[in-house]
Amino acid sequence: MSTSDKDQEDELAGTEQPFVAHLVELRDRLIKAIIAIAVVAGVLALYPGPAALYDIMAAPLVATLPKGATLIATSVISPFIVPLKILLMASFLIALPVVLWQVWSFVAPGLYSHEKRLVLPLVVSSTLLFFVGVAFCYFFVFGQVFAFIQGFAPKSITAAPDIEAYLSFVLTMFLAFGCAFEVPIVVIVLARMGIVPIEKLKEFRGYFIVLAFIIAAIITPPDVVSQLALAIPMVILYEVGIWAAGFFIKHTKAPEDASEAAKP
To answer: Measuring CA to CA, which of 8, 94, 103, 159 is 20 to 30 A from 221?
Structure first.
């Protein structure tokens, strides 16, 4: 047995647990994650409240509506259900770091040191990038898209969007932009796992630009503003991912890989 193999075995020595113990720990981690979401939901329910949360989410659209126009509810229970859904969504997003920490705490004992150096930064960075994508969509894209759409509305039409339809639209856009901002993580994982070499990723650059605009055209509304707002960041983040992949590969090598690379 080589020295590196022995070191790796020693590193995980004593961390083996019976299957039942793993299930118990998983249950405890899930309970802690649910409690975190419930606590955040309770705080948000008291302040600012579900109705105020919906007003915050609807603010970009309301700002572009004609004076005096508001959103409408076509279902009897929509004024109750929709703000409740937003409350749960906001609670999950705010508590997401705690949820991911519980996931990490459950998985980390079974990883080697070099694997921890890879996984933990990816978990943190993917979470941050998702939040950045959602924030970019809310603070920039929504205002531009709604203004563009309202500019095309005939004067004879009074805009009165349904609150459930608006919620569905917002969730779709948040998910689209949040996932689109994960492009660097996907590139890093593909390169680090050896699935696609960095040189191949560089060669694919031109094809990815076309792919990014196709994805943007499918996911976003049929307007140029939102399509460009999704495609351009994807292209930029693809380049960031290629650069970051080289850094991650260099600093997250397994001990045997590092020793092999050091040989003349």
So the answer is: 94
Q: What is the DSSP letter of 2?
A: -
Cα 228 to Cα 17, 122, 151, 257: the distances in Å are 50, 27, 18, 41
Task: Name the 3-class secondary structure at 222.
Answer: coil
pLDDT of 219: 86
Binned at pLDDT 50, 70 and 90, residue 261 comes out as very low
Q: Which amino acid type is present at position 140?
A: F
Helix (H, G, I), strand (E, B) or coil at 181: coil
d(C-alpha 58, C-alpha 68), whole Å: 15
Residue type (1 letter), 135: A
Contact in structure between 236 and 136 (CB atoms under 8 Å)? no
Q: What is the pTM of this model?
A: 0.81
Among positive and negative, which fits the CA dihedral 181, 186, 191, 197? negative
Here the contacts of 256-261 (C-beta below 8 Å, separation 24 or greater) are 256/2, 256/4, 256/5, 259/4
Instruction: For 102, list phi and psi in degrees, rounded to 5.
Output: -65, -40
